[in-house]
Amino acid sequence: MNMTWTEQSETARMGAGQSETARAGGGRPGEGADRPALPVLQLVGVSKRFDDFTAVDDISLDIREGEFLTIVGPSGSGKTTLLRMLAGLEQPSEGNITLRGTLINDLPARRRPTCLVFQSLALFPHMTVGRNIEFPLKAKGVSAAERKARALELLRMVRLPEAYYGKNVMTCSGGERQRVALARAFAYDPDVLFFDEPLSALDYKLKKLLEKELKDLHKETGKTFVYITHSLEEAMVMSDRIGVMRAGKLVQVGSPDAIYGQPQNRFVAEFVGEVNVIGVTLSNGAWLSQETAEPVRLVLPQTMAGAERAAVVIRPEYMKFLAAPGDADNVVSGRVYNEYSLGSRIQYQVRAGERVFLIEMSRSQIRPGTGDGEVLIGWNAEDAIVVEA
Amino acid sequence: MTNFNRRDTLKILGAGALAAGAPLGFPGAALAAREKELNILCWEGYNSAQVLDPFREKEGATVKAESLTNDPTMINRLRSGESKVWDLINVNNPWARKIMYPEKLIKPLPKDEFMPYFDKMLEQFHPPYKWAMSDDGSELLGMTQRFGPYSYVVNTDKISRKTAEETGWDLFNDESLAGKYGILESDDWNVFNIFLVAGLDPFKEHSPEEMKAFEDTALKVFKGAKLIGDIATMNQALISGEIDLHMTGGTYSVSPARADGFPEMRAITPLKGPMNGKGGVSWIEVTSTVNNPELSPLAPEFLKYVQDPEVAHTVAFAEGTFNPVAQMGNKACFDLFTKDELDAIQWDSLEEEMARSVEYDIVPDYEKALDLMNNAKRQRS
Amino acid sequence: MSDATLGTSSTVREKQGKERQGRSALRHLSLPAGARCASPILLFMALGFLAPLLTVIGFAFAEPRSFAVFESFTLRNFAEIFNPADTVWMSFAWSLALALLTVAALLLICYPIAYGLVRVFGRWSSLVSIAFVFPLFISENVRLYGWTLFFINHGVLDGLLAGIGLSGPNVLFTPEITLFGMIYTYLPFMLFPMTLGLSMVPGDLIEAARDFGAGRLMIWREIELPLAMPGILIGALLTFVLAAGAVAEAKILGGQSVIMISHDIENAFTYSQNWPRGAALAVLLMIVIGGLSMAVMARLDLDRILGRR
Amino acid sequence: MDRSRPRRSHLMIWIWTIFVAVAIYLPVACGALAGLSKGRYFLFPIRAYSFEWWQKTLDSLEIQRIVQTSILIALIVTVVSLVLGFFGALAFARFDWRGRRLYQKLLLLPIFFPQPVLGLALLLWFNTLGIQPSWHTAIVAHLVWIVPVVTLVIAIQVYGFDPAMEEAAADLGAGRWMILRDVTLPILWPGIWSGALFAFLLSWGNFPLSLYTAGADSTIPKWLYSKMVAGYTPMVPALGTMSTLAAATLLLAGGAIAGFVKARRAR
């Protein structure tokens, strides 16, 4: 499969006489293939304003050749606008976008060797599956016979039966449409594929399946994928790198592990999942939390140089019920008031003053203490992460 | 269709359902109110505010008048069942006597009340006036008022009155005038005039050869016409210089232009023609009471109202067309006309022009001629 | 994946129809409700539209120059019309030809405006639409007469041109000006369905196509035109049908340089005193128009066009 | 360079649209001019201006009556067509029922019908029924054409209406009447409002149907026509202009009210 794709891909490229512009942009395929650091797309200080609203605020980012980069962020964080600028559907208000070193700020979408898979998929409803897939080839002037051959191949690639070639695209199921949209994007043979939450409308099971397929396709084709989603879970499954956006800014970029394990600030930490976050202030060389019933002195893994304030993040699975106050570096006393089953694990909510702490344990563990009475909970310093407040 | 061939069934069905759809009183419900209601079907002029508004105020009545520009349509409206709507109908000379009365579409007027008015009219209308009476002369069928000659209208700056009168209907046979004349749309009167252009007397039976001549003439006349239109269009086109003359016009059509400061526009009656030597045609309107089962009592009142010298003068100079009226025989009425007004209606030559005209009559083969003419009209493009 | 459950296109469409807005739950209840809501209007239309048309048909088979509807049956009216000596076919030809030209001209005139309303004018769109819809509320006679005043010798155009030593063109009282009048009168009837059609083309499809490297012409031909076609078809049908029945333009502007079929129908009812002939002509016009309307409408999915989904 | 092209073509579209819009109002302006001419026949430049014809038009009893008739017809047409159209639109777009597709298409047929022919057909029908044409019958005639238009206008609004809201209201214990009053009608209000405007104005400006079906009664367009054909005076363009101004005022007022209501709701 992999081999077939590459070969076909090359023939199609030559047959179509494509990539003049794309390659002229400075890319020399093959050359420097061993240097993963070469950015395909580079953003420097890119901003986008609509009237008095700043959708994208001073973003700088390198997108590496062949990587699967996912931008995550809540809705309204500016990720779609960022993607549209990359695809050439919007022009940045400030800053530069370069493609392999060439400035492409004003290059329209159709001249860029990139391709966007829309959230709505934007399949042409009046065309068959085959004609949809052939559309980019037709735009390039590929002959009808060649188009069809290529379309059938792409159908195979996205795991759709060839019989779908003549099918009305509106009669396809959600997952099938997804595949058609993908096949169409590959038909364009872009260097970079952009995805604007294309899986958001699908049911959970199908979504999971397609996420994995997308990841496989990425590997098979070796293309650069830039994907946006509001679901970190989706991002974690597929991505090589993840960028987290908030209010137009890119707050952290890193591998999925880094994003999960070393969030740089409270926002990322909270976005990543249910966590305990405690605000702390530096007072006479010691970190104090004001959020518990009375100020508690905490032992932290490392000091934040120069910072007066910080947030401590403790994942629920690192919190423990303590038999005695000496069992952990940091200890809080509280009262259990809720207990949820999460399948293989159980989550407890423990109230300490105004604060609620989350503790997760695997079902096999037994909670010390009984009933709803007073409990001691705590964590070790090395299990906590200190981030910017 | 066999299920539907009973008109009465339909009536009940339709009336009931329409009442459901539009819950409004239908005229049937308004029978009682006819004392204060008058409906007039007429030529333009009687439907003007100047004539009707004083009557409305005087009687406190609702007066509706609809003007049409040809006789057959009005009469057909009565035939189609509207004789229940209208109280008065105002059409030209032959129709009351020859068509409407025999078809029982109108009813006679009380002679003792209305005959005396004729005494005060211009001499030619003195009783018993032919077109106002039934064929046997026993019944008075209507009242006369406006009249006039009509043949064609020319811009005398372009074609002198003398040339126009002497050339007569042959003006429309003159190829050099093609594209410079208009035709005032009035199908029945157009028929008369095309007969005349063809050199035929319209008001008699015609042989097939004569009908052929009519057809050829119709084709030629319509092909050569720059435009066909209504009175306002003709006058506007004359004044703007789009055309130099137009067929089927007379004092009635050109008088508003003359009154508006264009005395060079003039109705012409030819000196000679195929109707026993006469070339002109004249019309006289006869207003009759419709054979309406619920005839409004205001109908005779209105007929008397328009005989009043002041009102007759208003009728003569109602908006739209200005015409001589029979009541000008009464000095009280005549004195109301200013010099400008007399000029507008070409009073100076009215008598001689009427003398050169025949009073129009029914064309025996009208329907055939009309079909031929309509065919010709369509081929003008 | 549900591939296996997908059947032929027709069953799928049916399925989608049922799924519309989760209506399926209420389907059993709403089936009579829809019919109930429709019944007053249907009853009214049966009496106000269908019955008059049947009456016209009845008259068309009545004795010429009579009022004996549903009482006599004859084909003479039609025989007369189809008699080659009768030139009424010319009126039909002119009406249909001018209607066709009107449609063609309006397609070209309205397309940029409709495009502008959907994609260019932005917040000005509603104002521009109102400007174009408003003339519908002014009686067409008044507007057409205004053109006469504009074009006539010593009219507005001529008078203005005289100011710079020129004279106005001699355009009145011709078939061309009749066509012009029809284009003018029926412009809104093309513009609005067309705008509706163009607004059915999702913006992201255009963007997607552009992203795939399609040029303007290709986008227009492959995406915009086919997707906007239902609206364009409605506009074309509406203007054609209305123009085919038009009469005022030929009378007021055209000086009857051509006779339209509606004029002939009208004449039959007036000067000719021949209602049955007029009815027969009307029936023939109805056959042309009704046939065309039915044929085009059968191809349209009104839910999609009006509901935009 | 590539970006300037859409801008240039947008400019062309603006220019073309404005050109066509000006052309649309040109004859209306010419008519207004003619109404201000002292002379009966129109020559441009106008020799003498005068408000005489406007004055005469305003003074005329007959025109007062015609205006009243026109308003009355338009009002009744508006009310009846709203009632029929409202339910018709529900049947058109809200409910799924057997025969809906056919109903949708049949309903549009009167719009796709030349009005002179429709007017004559109605005249024949009324004649066959023995009903005298009057302004009552003109109402019926107007309705035949306007009800489908109003239905369509409201239906477009109904399409955007989620029936789940009615279901939710019913689930929360609202009765049929309360649902209609508190849920359905307020949501459909913009469609009903524009339907009402359309109904009134289309009736106000209609000529071909009134010509054949109003009998002895006259409406403004019918009066204008009959005076144009015979008895032309500048009262014709004067009344035409007044009627246009009245329609424009109504449209503007309608728009302003709609805007006001919208603004109030948004708050």
How is this structure best described in words?
Chain A contains ten helices and 20 strands. With 389 residues, chain A is of the alpha+beta class. Chain A has two domains: 173 residues, P-loop containing nucleotide triphosphate hydrolases (Rossmann fold), CATH 3.40.50.300; 114 residues, OB fold (Dihydrolipoamide Acetyltransferase, E2P). In chain A, the strands form four sheets. A six-stranded mixed beta sheet of chain A has the order 6-7-8-3-9-10, with helices on both faces. In chain A, strands 13-12-11-14-20 form a five-stranded antiparallel beta sheet, with helices on one face. Chain A has a five-stranded antiparallel beta sheet with strand order 15-19-16-17-18, with no helix packed on it. In chain A, helix 4 runs parallel beside helix 6. The longest helix of chain A is centred in the middle third of the chain and has 18 residues. The two termini of chain A are 49 Å apart. By secondary structure, chain B is α/β, with parallel strands linked by helices. Helix content of chain B is 40%, strand content 17%. In chain B, strand 1, helix 2 and strand 2 form a beta-alpha-beta unit. In chain C, helix 8 crosses helix 10, helix 10 packs antiparallel against helix 13 and helix 12 runs antiparallel to helix 13. Chain C is built from 14 helices and no strands. Chain C has one domain: MetI-like (MetI-like fold, Orthogonal Bundle), CATH 1.10.3720.10. The longest helix of chain C has 34 residues. Helices cover 72% and strands 0% of the residues of chain C. Chain C is mainly alpha-helical and 309 residues long. In chain D, helix 3 packs parallel to helix 6. The two termini of chain D are 44 Å apart. The model of chain D has no long low-confidence stretch (mean pLDDT 88). The chains are: A alpha+beta (389), B alpha/beta (381), C mainly alpha (309), D mainly alpha (267). Chain D: Keywords: Cell membrane, Membrane, Transmembrane, Transmembrane helix, Transport. Chain D: Belongs to the binding-protein-dependent transport system permease family. CysTW subfamily. Chain D: This is ABC transporter permease.
